[in-house]
Specification:
- The chain has helices at 2-16, 23-49, 54-86, 100-124, 131-151, 157-162, 164-188, 192-198, 205-216, 218-242, 247-254, 263-270, 274-298.
- With 299 residues, it is an all-alpha fold.
- The protein has one domain.
- It is globular and about 55 Å long.
């Protein structure tokens, strides 16, 4: 059980141990990581095309997506406002224009890649037996590169430990997402460990879909991808509306994306004081996504 988890987790550990000081090398790694994500998502689409009773399975994916999204979001949003009430955060406006349309299109592009793989697999009808092995091989390389990115993200252990609010927000998200996953698993009558794995994506939709798809199959992988994608899109819409009154809620609901994708929105709408909180919270959640997912998948 644990040997399989270690085999997949090892590239992430090795990557995290590698310091990179040249900006050009980091840019190259970032570019290749983005490309590998697109390749694996296209392979996910091909895997879906290889399923028997495709229409029924797509309905199941949508059911799983809706159940997990509602359950996890409800648990998150039931607790985060209490943190705002008990530990307020000062915010400020900075009226810069943000390319929200462009940011949303980046998310839509990933959906189109999965859909493209599905359409190609259905229309061409070629042998798809190689897809799972190819996905696993590329996944190992992707985890290695993600480990390097996390190590060289600019966050030191000291900076993380000094920002208590960022840590608390991350812990609240973890402590409410996992029960949400259990509730969804009970509703859907699936193994609790599958529900816990599905609840460990924290908004990182590309990696969540890839890891879950590799470990639990394309139905779960597709549901994990859509669940976390919906979280990010809702966060982009929710942050400008609530961050002035509920900054911890806005940052927490953004999940792992608070350190990168949704950070410009958080900074623009909440002010500079929200930035270190968001980065620390997002970094901790990003670091724990592969750890928790691989652990629960291996059980």
């Amino acid at each position: 059980m644990f040997s399989g988890m270690l085999f997949i987790f090892l590239p992430l550990i090795i990557g995290y141990l590698i310091p990179v000081h040249k900006t050009s090398v980091l840019e190259f790694i970032n570019t290749q990581t983005s490309r590998l994500v697109l390749v694996i998502l296209a392979l996910m689409g091909l895997s879906l095309a290889g399923l028997d009773n495709l229409g029924q399975n797509l309905s199941q994916i949508l059911l799983y997506t809706a159940t997990f999204f509602i359950s996890i979001s409800f648990c998150n949003l039931a607790a985060l406002p209490l943190l705002d009430k008990l530990w307020p955060t000062n915010t400020a406006h900075d009226h810069r224009q943000l390319p929200l349309g462009k940011m949303i299109m980046e998310s839509v592009k990933l959906v189109l890649v999965v859909a493209g793989g599905l359409i190609v697999g259905i229309t061409l009808g070629f042998d798809l037996s190689w897809v799972d092995q190819a996905s696993e091989t590329i996944l190992l390389l992707l985890l290695f590169l993600i480990g390097i990115q996390l190590r060289n993200s600019g966050m030191t252990l000291r900076q993380i430990l000094l920002n208590k609010k960022g840590i608390i927000i991350a812990l609240v998200i973890i402590g409410t997402s996992l029960p949400g996953g259990i509730i969804a698993a009970l509703i859907l009558d699936i193994p609790i460990t599958h529900g816990l794995a599905m609840a460990s994506g924290f908004g990182w939709y590309s990696l969540a879909g890839i890891l879950i798809g590799d470990g639990l199959g394309p139905i779960y992988g597709g549901a994990a991808f859509l669940n976390e994608l919906m979280r990010e899109l809702i966060a982009l819409s929710l942050i400008p509306l609530i961050i002035q009154r509920y900054p911890s809620t806005a940052i927490g609901y953004a999940g792992a994306t608070a350190m990168d994708f949704t950070l410009p929105v958080i900074q623009n709408c909440g002010g500079i004081k929200c930035v270190p909180i968001a980065i620390v919270s997002g970094f901790i959640l990003s670091l724990l996504v592969p750890v928790l997912m691989l652990f629960f998948i291996s059980l």
